[in-house]
Structure formats: C-alpha cells, structure tokens
Amino acid sequence: MSAQFAQYGADGSLRILEVAGRGEWALSHLLAAGATGCTRISHPGPRWADYVFKLRRRGLDIASVAEHYKGPFAGTHGGYILRSKDERLGAMEMAA
What we know:
This protein is α+β, with helices and mostly antiparallel strands. It has helices at residues 21-33, 48-57; strands at 2-8, 14-20, 38-39, 62-69, 75-82, 85-92.
C-alpha cells in the first residue's frame, strides 16, 4: 500500500509525492501530530531516525528536537516535527 501526499512549496508550487511502507506510516503520524510532533515514546516505531532521514532526502522539511523528561531515568530523547506544508491525498494499492 502506498499513499500520495501533496507538498506545497513556499513559492506556491505543488509537488506530489508517493510514499509507501514505513515512510508512509511515519509521514502520516507526523501530519496527524502537527506542531506537537512525534517521538519514539509517543509514537512507537523501530527506526524513526531512518524514516525521517529518507523523508528528508525526498525534500520534506522535518525538524529534530530534543525532548527532556523527568523521573527515575531522566534524560532526553529525540522528536520530529514536520515543518513543510504537506497533506495526504489518498491511498493506493501497489502492484504485486
């Protein structure tokens, strides 16, 4: 299964991206999370850094942020926020 996403440039341009697999999963979660963004804790996934790396290579603007947390095992973990203007257009069945 894959999905198409519309990416709007700052100059008003429109680009259609077809994203499949875990990239589609990650982008869908980033879109739904909005300005809150996603972390491995809020949206468990085995390889967030890889998904974000590959989406960035496709031209998406995704910011990395350090999230601090408290408790007996206090520390930081990474989070990601989609900065580019994108929207999901729809899902398509991939040919076998």
